[in-house]
Design brief:
It is a single chain. By secondary structure, this protein is of the alpha/beta class. The chain is built from eight helices and 15 strands. Helices cover 34% and strands 24% of the residues. Strand 5, helix 2 and strand 6 form a beta-alpha-beta unit. The structure holds NADP nicotinamide-adenine-dinucleotide phosphate (NAP). The site of NADP nicotinamide-adenine-dinucleotide phosphate (NAP) has 30 residues, from helix 1, helix 2, helix 5 and helix 8. Its EC number is 1.2.1.11.
C-alpha cells in the first residue's frame, strides 16, 4: 500500500539536489511534506517548489526527527557525519556519496538489478533485524549504475566472463564547481582571455583527463569504485572487470565503450533482444550525450557481436548521470519504500 512520505533532501542547492527537486515533481512522488537542507552557507536561501518556495535549513543543526526518508547528496564527509544522525532519528537515508558503499551492512541498490535485496532489507528493518547502522541505503557510483543495467541484462541472458570498459565522463559528475570550470574556460577561450582552473589540475576545455579521483595504486578511485561496486551488486566477486575512467569536456551525461565476453555465444539479434527487454535500458542507433540529457533511460548503441567470436560483444552506452546515475536511482529506491508502506 503506497504511503505519502515525509521527505528531506540534503544537498538541495547542489547539482544533484536540483535534479532531485525536478524529478520529484516530474514523477509526482507521493509527498506528505518536503524539507530542504544544505550547508550553513545556504541558510536564508529559498528554493522554488511547485507554486511556492521552501527555505533551506542547515543540515548540521537541523532537527532530524519526523522524516521518513532523507535523500542525501552532500558529499562523503558530510554524509559520514550526518546520515547516522538522521538514521538514528528514524529516517531511511539514501546516500549518494561513497561513504557507506563498502559497508556490508548497508545495501547498495540499483532497483532494476538487485531490488530483491532492498525488499529483504526493508522487511528486516521493519522487524528490527538488520538495522545494524540505522536506516542507511547507499546509491552506487554514477558510472557503476549506468554500466550495470546493460551488463546485468547480458549476464542474465548469456552469462558474463569479462568486461573491459573505458568511460567518457561529463564534468557535472564532479559537481557544480567542476561544471562551471568547463563553461568558464570555454567562455574565456572564446573571448581570448586567460583560462583558469581549480577543480582539475589542468584545463578540461579542449582536453581529456584519463584520471578521476585520487590514485589507488596504478588505478584511480573512480576505477576502483566501478569494479568493487559492480562485483558487489552482481554478487560476482570474481568477475574480471577492467576500467579506465576519463573526464571529457562534456557538460552532462556519461558515456562508455564496453567490451564484454559472454559465458556463451550469442547472435546480434539475441543480444539486441536481451538489452531491449531489460528494465531501464533503451536501444538507440548512435546515442550521444548532448541529445540524451534529462532522459531517464540508459541508452545502448553500436551493438556488435564478434565478428570472429560469438561471445564477444561491444557496446556504446550513454546515460544522464545526474538522473539515472544519481537522483533518479535514489528516487526509485524511495518510491519502492513508499510503495512498501513507508
Ligand atoms: N554530480 C553527479 O553526477 C553525481 C553523481 C553521483 C553521485 N554524486 C554525489 O552526490 C553528492 C553531491 O554532488 P553534486 O554534484 O550535487 O555536488 P555539488 O553541485 O557541488 O553540490 C554539493 C551540495 O552539498 C552541499 N554541502 C556541501 N557541504 C555541506 C555541508 N558541510 N553541510 C551540508 N551540505 C553541504 C552543498 O550545499 P551549499 O550550496 O550550501 O554549499 C550542495 O548542496 C556527492 O557526494 C557526489 O559524489 C554526484
Amino acid at each position: 500500500m503506497e504511503r505519502a512520505l515525509h521527505l528531506g533532501v540534503a544537498g538541495a542547492t547542489g547539482l544533484v539536489g536540483g535534479e532531485f527537486l525536478a524529478l520529484l515533481e516530474k514523477r509526482r512522488f507521493p509527498l506528505a511534506s518536503l524539507r530542504l537542507f544544505a550547508s550553513a552557507r545556504s541558510v536564508g536561501r529559498r528554493l522554488r517548489w511547485g507554486a511556492g518556495e521552501i527555505a533551506v535549513e542547515d543540515l548540521a543543526t537541523a532537527d532530524p526527527r519526523g522524516l521518513d526518508v532523507l535523500l542525501c547528496s552532500a558529499g562523503k564527509r558530510v554524509a559520514a557525519e550526518q546520515a547516522p544522525r538522521f538514521a538514528a532519528a528514524g529516517a531511511i537515508v539514501i546516500d549518494n556519496s561513497s561513504a557507506f558503499r563498502e559497508d556490508p551492512a548497508v545495501p547498495l541498490i540499483v532497483p532494476e538489478v538487485n531490488g530483491a535485496r532492498l525488499r529483504d532489507w526493508l522487511a528486516g528493518a521493519r522487524s528490527g533485524a538488520t538495522l545494524a547502522r540505522g536506516g542507511i541505503i547507499a546509491n552506487p557510483n554514477c558510472t557503476t549504475i549506468v554500466l550495470l543495467l546493460p551488463l546485468d541484462a547480458l549476464r542474465r541472458a548469456f552469462g558474463l566472463e569479462e568486461v573491459v570498459v573505458s568511460t567518457y565522463q561529463a564534468v557535472s559528475g564532479a559537481g557544480r564547481e567542476a561544471r562551471d570550470e568547463l563553461l568558464g574556460q570555454a567562455r574565456a577561450f572564446s573571448l581570448g582571455e586567460p583560462e583558469t582552473w581549480r577543480h582539475y589540475d589542468r584545463p578540461i576545455f579542449l582536453n581529456v583527463i584519463p584520471k578521476i579521483g585520487d590514485w589507488v595504486g596504478a588505478d584511480c578511485f573512480e576505477e576502483v569504485k566501478v569494479v568493487r561496486e559492480t562485483r558487489r551488486i552482481l554478487g560476482a566477486p570474481d568477475l574480471r572487470l577492467y576500467a579506465t575512467t576519463v573526464r571529457v569536456p562534456v557538460e552532462r551525461c556519461h558515456s562508455a565503450s564496453v567490451f564484454a565476453r559472454l559465458g556463451r555465444p550469442a547472435t546480434e539479434v539475441e543480444v539486441r533482444e536481451a538489452l531491449a527487454g531489460a528494465p531501464g535500458v533503451a536501444l538507440e542507433d548512435l546515442p550521444t550525450p548532448r541529445e540524451l540529457a534529462r532522459r531517464e533511460e540508459v541508452f545502448v548503441g553500436r551493438i556488435r557481436v564478434g565478428p570472429d567470436d560469438g561471445r564477444v560483444v561491444r557496446l556504446w552506452i550513454v546515460s544522464d548521470q545526474l538522473w539515472k546515475g544519481a537522483a533518479l536511482n535514489a528516487i526509485q529506491i524511495a518510491e519502492r519504500i513508499a510503495a512498501d508502506g513507508g
